[in-house]
């Protein structure tokens, strides 16, 4: 994926974005497909979602994408796809190499021992709901599950010794101390290898390492004297480049540490109040395959609104969006894919295994982004049911294993009888007073009840985030009655929420309004019947990012609060 900086000077990388051959196969079992006899009768953009294009809008089934890729020599090559929804099978020259389940995460397919020349790459993609093959994409969720090769695609020539992954952590922001972990791999034990590390073009390490195995990890502690820190207000970034013999990798980092101290969330020891939105990575014309220009526009409007926080609801965020958040100082709650799961899912090993794989991939693809300040799981799942607690323990435990540097949380809509809050660093609550229950005038009391209950039940020494709250407003609908679904009602509700949470109060450390912009919802009958237009209309902007009445209300409050 093309980033704002070159990730490799020496490694040969081919960007595979463009128009691929395409065919819609329909309601067929992938195991019954004769991959050598496919008739590609169409073309499709990669990245993109085929079911966001008019011709295939709303259709679900198996599809095939095809392109040709250059195999430089007989050394290993690696195909990297940044997100394929919801299930895929990768073929090279008609041979199946791997399956992948779940969208939203980057995954690699290694091509070994292929003779030099062109190879045919076919990707079978399935956007149907099929619990067996993709247990994390379920039709009842409150958003439309688009299908396709939705984000970047590239081919890497790995050579005989390569850097599999760079993982960089800030060990001590005040001392500008970072730890660089270099995971390497090789076709044969490499022996002595030259390793050079530079930061912003300045050499900070040059040594020979003796690599005895075909895979391993090299770790170095480096002090970047005088390097500027990353924070929401001053998002300074640095380019760290590692060369290992003939391979190399560049990562962009922010020197910062996130911690919690009692009810405060700290970045580099300074308390931060998170003000922002839940944002679906979606658009009616692009599905989950947003063009770069739209990501720029979304970030412009988030900044215009005065927000410094986005909850990536409800799945791992596009790394291009995270790059922009790194650059503009927007803090991100990055979340594993999940929505209102019950014990049926949380006690199913297939579901848990799929969650663990997705968490591994989410952390790997976004670990080095300073904008990601916390990890989340299992939106609004049954954390009030003791039968679900082992599932929460396992998934939160995996996050802590993979990354001890970021706080973890989950959004609960059962704040008064939740049995898993002790497992998280930050307590997050979704609540909709004034929308699903009661009037706007009851909002202060409802919020105070929740906060008082949390403080009285063991959570008084933790930060609280109101992770969802809001109201629906059909775009352009203004009415004398100012009832639900009008833009006036939404504006009045959000005005009441922000005033009550933050004017003369500071118990709550963060707010993510539901939601940034409207999004298409699931086609499932009992979902869509409750969603005018077939959209979740609680955006402060509509799905084409046109502001509603509430936009100016939220903007005024957020800028005023941020100026304090
Ligand atoms: C829940 C859910 C959101 C959305 C929201 C709503 O809080 O987490 O994804 O469905 O309700 O609009 O009702």
Please describe the topology of this protein:
Elements: E1 13-15, E2 18-26, E3 42-46, E4 62-71, E5 77-81, E6 84-85, E7 87-92, E8 95-101, E9 107-111, E10 117-126, E11 148-149, E12 153-157, E13 161-172, E14 177-186, E15 191-199, E16 202-211, E17 215-223, E18 238-244, E19 247-253, E20 258-261, E21 264-267, E22 270-271, E23 274-278, H1 292-304, E24 309-311, H2 319-328, E25 331-335, H3 343-346, H4 349-366, E26 372-377, H5 389-402, E27 408-412, E28 427-430, H6 443-459, E29 464-468, H7 487-502, E30 508-513, E31 519-520, H8 525-528, E32 535-536, H9 549-562
Helix pairs in contact: 1-2, 4-5, 7-9
Bound molecules: alpha-D-galactopyranuronic acid (ADA).
Alpha-D-galactopyranuronic acid (ADA) binds at residues 142, 313-314, 379-380, 430, 468, 514, 536, 538.
Describe this structure in words.
By secondary structure, the chain is α+β, with helices and mostly antiparallel strands. The chain has 3 domains: 12-157, Galactose-binding domain-like (Jelly Rolls), CATH 2.60.120; 161-256, Immunoglobulins (Immunoglobulin-like, Sandwich); 259-563, Glycosidases (TIM Barrel, Alpha-Beta Barrel), CATH 3.20.20.80. It is 20% helix and 33% strand. Strands 23-24-25-26-27-28-29-30 form an 8-stranded parallel barrel. A 6-stranded antiparallel β-sheet has the order 3-2-4-10-7-8, with no helix packed on it. The radius of gyration is 24 Å and the shape is globular. It starts with 12 loop residues before the first strand and ends with a helix. The model has no long low-confidence stretch (mean pLDDT 97). Bound molecules: alpha-D-galactopyranuronic acid (ADA). Residues 142, 313-314, 379-380, 430, 468, 514, 536, 538 line the site of alpha-D-galactopyranuronic acid (ADA).
């Amino acid at each position: 994926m093309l980033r704002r900086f070159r990730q490799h000077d020496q490694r040969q990388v081919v960007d595979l974005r463009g128009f691929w051959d395409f065919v819609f196969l329909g309601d067929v079992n992938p195991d019954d497909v004769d991959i050598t006899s496919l008739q590609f009768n169409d073309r499709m953009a990669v990245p993109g979602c085929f079911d966001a294009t008019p011709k295939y809008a709303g259709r679900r089934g198996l599809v095939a994408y095809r392109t040709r890729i250059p195999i430089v020599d007989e050394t290993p090559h690696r195909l990297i796809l940044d997100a394929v929804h919801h299930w895929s099978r990768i073929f090279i020259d008609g041979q199946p190499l791997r399956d992948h389940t779940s969208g939203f995460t980057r995954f690699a397919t290694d091509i070994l021992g292929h003779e030099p020349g062109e190879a045919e790459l076919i990707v079978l993609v399935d956007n149907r709901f099929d619990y067996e093959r993709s247990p994390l994409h379920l039709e009842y969720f409150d958003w439309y599950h688009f299908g396709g090769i939705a984000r970047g695609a590239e081919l890497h020539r790995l050579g005989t010794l390569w850097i599999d992954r760079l993982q960089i952590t800030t060990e001590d922001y005040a001392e500008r101390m970072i730890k660089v972990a270099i995971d390497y791999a090789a076709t044969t034990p490499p022996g002595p290898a030259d390793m050079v590390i530079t930061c912003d073009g300045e050499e900070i390490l040059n040594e020979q390492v003796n690599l005895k195995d075909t895979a391993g990890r090299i770790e170095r502690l480096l002090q970047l004297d005088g390097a500027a820190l990353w924070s929401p207000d001053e998002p300074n970034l640095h380019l760290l480049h590692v060369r290992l013999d003939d391979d190399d990798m560049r990562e962009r980092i922010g020197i910062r540490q996130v911690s919690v101290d009692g009810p405060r969330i700290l970045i580099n020891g300074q308390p931060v109040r998170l003000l922002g939105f839940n944002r679906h990575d979606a658009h009616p014309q692009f599905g989950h395959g947003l063009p770069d220009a739209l990501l720029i526009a979304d970030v412009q409007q988030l900044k215009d609104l005065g927000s410094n926080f986005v909850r990536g609801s409800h799945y791992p965020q596009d790394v291009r969006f995270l790059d922009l958040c790194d650059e503009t100082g927007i803090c991100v709650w990055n979340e594993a894919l999940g929505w209102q799961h019950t014990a049926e899912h949380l006690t199913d090993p297939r579901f848990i295994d799929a969650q663990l794989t997705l968490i591994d991939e989410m952390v790997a693809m976004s670990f080095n982004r300073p904008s990601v300040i916390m990890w989340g799981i299992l939106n609004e799942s049954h954390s009030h049911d003791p039968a679900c607690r082992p599932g929460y323990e396992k998934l939160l435990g995996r996050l802590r294993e993979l990354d001890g540097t970021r706080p973890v949380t989950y959004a609960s809509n059962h704040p008064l009888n939740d049995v898993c809050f002790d497992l998280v660093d930050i307590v997050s609550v979704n609540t909709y007073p004034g929308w699903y229950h009661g009037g706007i005038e009851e909002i202060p009391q409802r919020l105070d009840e929740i906060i008082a209950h949390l403080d009285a039940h063991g959570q008084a020494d933790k930060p609280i985030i109101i992770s969802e709250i809001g109201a629906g407003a059909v775009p352009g609908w203004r009415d004398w009655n100012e009832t639900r679904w009008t833009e006036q009602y939404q504006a009045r509700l959000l005005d009441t929420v922000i005033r009550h949470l933050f004017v003369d109060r500071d118990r709550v450390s963060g707010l993510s309004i539901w939601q940034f912009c409207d999004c298409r919802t699931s086609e499932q009958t009992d979902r869509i019947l409750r969603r005018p237009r077939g959209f979740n209309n609680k955006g402060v902007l509509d799905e084409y990012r046109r502001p509603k009445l509430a936009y100016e209300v939220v903007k005024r409050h957020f800028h005023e609060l941020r100026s304090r």
